[in-house]
Amino acid sequence: MASGIGILDRVERVLKIFRAAAVVVSAAALFGLVLMITADTFFRYVLLKPFPATVEISQLVEPYVIFLPMAFALASGSHVRVTMFTSRLGPRMGVISDGLAYAIGFAFFVTMTYISWMSFWSSFAINETVLAAIKLYWWSGRFGMPVGMALISIECAYQFVRTLRGANGAARRA
Predict the structure, then answer these.
(1) What Å distances lie between residue 125 and 20, 61, 118, 121, 137, CA to CA?
(2) What is the pTM of this model?
(3) Are 10 and 66 in contact (CB under 8 A)?
(4) In the chain, how long is the greatest CA-to-CA distance?
(5) What per-residue confidence (pLDDT) applies to 46?
(6) Of 28, 31, 77, 116, which is the most buried if we count CB atoms within 10 A?
(7) Range 53-74 average pLDDT
(8) Contact, 156 vs 113, CB < 8 A?
(9) Mean pLDDT of 30-40
């Protein structure tokens, strides 16, 4: 059993690196988006020279802002949870309900990973472009969703295993 905990610790360290990288990329994308929109607004209304394709570029960046940090939010307990009923369950039923939630989440996010990957791949295969003032590729924005969905799928699986092994028990009782 001790070796199992050692494996969980190693997996946790690797996941922390991936979560941190995803959050950094997401934050950088959000910061770039804010700068671009602010500069576009200034140039549009003060200098009467708007940037071309600001709306389209922001649409391509949004999946990175939204989907990449989802695994971090799950790991840190930041996702919204309704615990009106589950908080009243005993410890054993609480573990079962948490495990069930992670299993359902895993199934859902794996499905979303597959669907979004297929969408990305079909866009990439035909080199799909956005109808905009400048040449932009749809696949560049579509790549963010399957990556984010894959990360949260892995996080759900990890949390499921931790729950079954009793490693999430202290957090549940808190």
Answers:
(1) 30, 20, 10, 6, 11
(2) 0.84
(3) no
(4) 67
(5) 93
(6) 116
(7) 94
(8) no
(9) 95
